[in-house]
């Protein structure tokens, strides 16, 4: 069979064309987008995990890691870069280049856990024509938030600079950002009061100002924030009482975190009527009086922290279906026993009842579930008996604190599980030898008991073993032959 000259020429032409045809997906992205992204990359001084190594000039930036583009015009719409908190090599070091302003179709910036991104507040972002979502979290952005913060024609949906080093006050111009659903400025170094203008942000579902140095009263403006689901104001220097208008959030509020401030007065009764509450943190304040009986209505509460206040008996018998964490420590309670509604909880992780006036035998406590416990703190009570039965039924316990009780058992019978890192049995009547398994702990205190024998080789100081009958070996005196 022979091939005609015309057929041969057609085959050769087809092969030549296919060899020189560029794939469609190799098309370059828009020059402005490429220049903006490469300008950002040039300001990054360290990228140990190679997060940006595939950002190569001349290639399609819509295929670069962390980049998404609009389908209709292939313009960059989002930039998303995240580090892994447990992997230090995944962090970036450098600054946020203003060249990002060239990305005229950019809708969202999501920089999370990059840790070492520094420089001043990137005010240029607020002049970009299409930007609606800014998340620059857990880095080293510093300096003041400019007064023109809210003077933007953009209708921002979410702004988060959580976990940076911002200073100064929250600008009053924040009141102009009326389309915001999330405002997160927590874990910075902000000072001054909470701006009253936040009352105008009626679409807010998430407000976080925690972990700053804010002072003054909590404004009574929540009647206008009826969409609020999460309110985080913990770890500031706020004073005064819980404002009455928070009661209007009963249908929606799931998380109310006011711990570690200087709030005072009585816990308002209306908190017990907020049946959507998942988390309530009022810890480390100056609340007085009793916990309202209306707390019986908090059937959906999973995390309750009332520790370190001046609260007194009686504590209400709650009707929770299951609680994940409970901390009532360091008040003036006299509970007598661990509450039944705690004992019957099927999913509890953390139980902290230090100095709660508990007088019971620990052997008599039969929690329905011990498998999920992470932390148990029963310090400073009058609990007797043995901890062996409880601790030897837990596989995931990380910490157990029971100092200053009347426990009496042979420590040698304790099973030290792999997860256990913190153990404090000081000032009890524990006897026997110290098990070798304690070498894997991070913190240990068995001082002022009746222990005897050679101490296993550990890194703990002498104070961890002081006041026992006849312990010997480093860091105490040598054992006799």
From TrEMBL:
Q: Does the keyword Transmembrane apply?
A: yes
Q: Which residues form the signal peptide?
A: 1-26
Q: What is its main location?
A: other
Query: InterPro entries, alphabetically?
Result: Leu-rich_rpt, Leu-rich_rpt_typical-subtyp, LRR_dom_sf, LRR_N_plant-typ, PGIP
The UniProt keyword set, sorted, is: Leucine-rich repeat, Membrane, Repeat, Signal, Transmembrane, Transmembrane helix
A Pfam family reported for this protein in Swiss-Prot or TrEMBL:
LRR_8
Looking at the record, the residues that make up the Leucine-rich repeat-containing N-terminal plant-type domain are 30-69
Q: List where in the cell it is found.
A: Cell envelope
Keyword Repeat included in the entry's annotation: yes
| SUPFAM superfamilies assigned | L domain-like
Top-rank lineage group of the source organism: Eukaryota
Report the sequence similarity comment from the record.
Belongs to the polygalacturonase-inhibiting protein family.
Report what the protein is called: Leucine-rich repeat-containing N-terminal plant-type domain-containing protein
The top of its lineage is: Eukaryota, Viridiplantae, Streptophyta, Embryophyta, Tracheophyta
